[in-house]
Amino acid sequence: MNGWKVKPSRRSKVDVLINSPAQIKLSEVEDDRDRSGKFCVIEICGKARWVEEGRYYDVFRIKQEENKSIYLNRVFFYSTMEGKLLFGTPFLDNVRIKATVMKHFRGNKIYRLKFKPKKNYKRFYGHRQEMSRIYINKFEINNNLMDREQRKYNFFRDDSIYYVLNRIHNMVRPSLELKHLKKHFMDYLNKFCSLKFETFYKHRGNYKREKMLRNILKTKKLSKRPEVQEEVRKIEEEKESRRLNKYDPLADFDPVANECFIREHFYV
């Protein structure tokens, strides 16, 4: 009992940390920085970054003008003010980040040296990376983190700009999903797209048949058969009709129909 000491509990340490003068002073500072404890881990420029509201971060060059807004949709997970963690698979579909491009600049110069021994070869050069500084405005949470079935809008799927890229990026088994995409893409081509793209996908199976006919026509005996000549005539007429009837591919493009097609066929 002589050497026994009372160890301070973890709860007392947390209370001291929350009620410390440093935390009180930081809470009174008005610098538009969020100190509530919520944060996101996102993928940007091929790297995972920890971001918080009211702070700026330097990333590789972003193709956007200065003082313009961007949305960051690739959110790995999000931590709420209460400490609840929400993990994506691999990205969250109900959280996105609104940021502003503050400025574009070039990073510090990095010097490199190439040297080959016994070859009298030595090269010394530098490189400055193109960078952008972004300011995190706020985290936009859709429908208060409700279940997927109850949401009215889905940041991850309903955005027609990011939909295709996100869908391809998240394919776990592309060999199975690409068949499904190709099937419905064919229906879309037959309804809305031009003959040029329609024939490219629709008549890809005729390539082998045309190749066989070319080989047949090289032989004199087979080329004189009436069934071969009839098949060649059909192919030539089909090519001529396609050439005469082709028109602008964007003539029948309808963004409303495009979004309706995405909602109808690609939702899982």
Automatic annotation (TrEMBL):
GO terms for cellular component: mitochondrial large ribosomal subunit; plastid. InterPro entries: bL21-like (IPR028909), bL21-like_sf (IPR036164), Ribosomal_bL21 (IPR001787), Ribosomal_bL21_CS (IPR018258). It is found in: Plastid. Keywords: Plastid, Ribonucleoprotein, Ribosomal protein, RNA-binding, rRNA-binding. One of its GO terms (molecular function) is structural constituent of ribosome. Pfam families: Ribosomal_L21p. One of its GO terms (biological process) is translation. Belongs to the bacterial ribosomal protein bL21 family. NCBIfam families: L21. This is Ribosomal protein L21. It comes from Plasmodium coatneyi. The lineage of its organism: Eukaryota, Sar, Alveolata, Apicomplexa, Aconoidasida.
